[in-house]
Amino acid sequence: MVLYGVAALAACMLAGTLVGELLGDALGVDANIGGVGFAMIMLVLVTHWLRRKDKFPKASDQGVLFWSAMYIPIVIAMASTQNVAKAVTGGPMALLAGLGAVVATGALVPVLTRIGEPAQPLPPLTADGEEIAAATDTATQQQGA
């Protein structure tokens, strides 16, 4: 069953690479544009849909988790290294765009932390899970009031 999760990841990666290549061709760029990102989005959407339909067993989920912990960060790190090398040789506009994105992201952190209502911290984990169940019941009762 773990193999099904790995197969879902592989299918999404191939589809994402294809979409990235087609997007690159459509824009007249000889590169894969966003293939890994498209693969991630497809993987999230496909696995969410399969979970809702109860067609994605827990063991298959373990296959996706295994590769997300191993493979996906490596691919993203490789892609980011290529992007940095292109940006350095591409001139000052690429560097300014990168710095602008970093500054904008940093500026949005305080804004994003204010979204939503303050909540109570989670209770500590225990081996038997009794505290978690009690805290969940209390939170549910508070929301209903």
Q: Which terms summarize this structure?
A:
mainly alpha, 5 helices, extended
How would you describe this protein?
The chain has 145 residues and is an all-alpha fold. It is 78% helix and 0% strand. The protein is built from 5 helices and no strands. It has helices at 2-26, 35-52, 58-90, 92-113, 130-144. Helix 1 crosses helix 2 (35-52), helix 1 runs parallel beside helix 3 and helix 3 (58-90) crosses helix 4 (92-113).
How far is it from the N-terminal to the C-terminal residue, by CA? Answer: 43 Å
Quickly give the structural class: mainly alpha
Say how many strands there are.
Answer: 0
Give me the Rg, rounded.
21 Å
Order of SSEs, N→C?
A: HHHHH
Give average pLDDT, whole number: 78
* Separate helix tally: 5
Residue windows where pLDDT falls under 50 for at least 5 positions: none
Q: Estimate the helix proportion, in percent.
A: over 70%
Shape: extended
Largest pleated sheet: none
Query: Proportion of β residues?
Result: under 5%
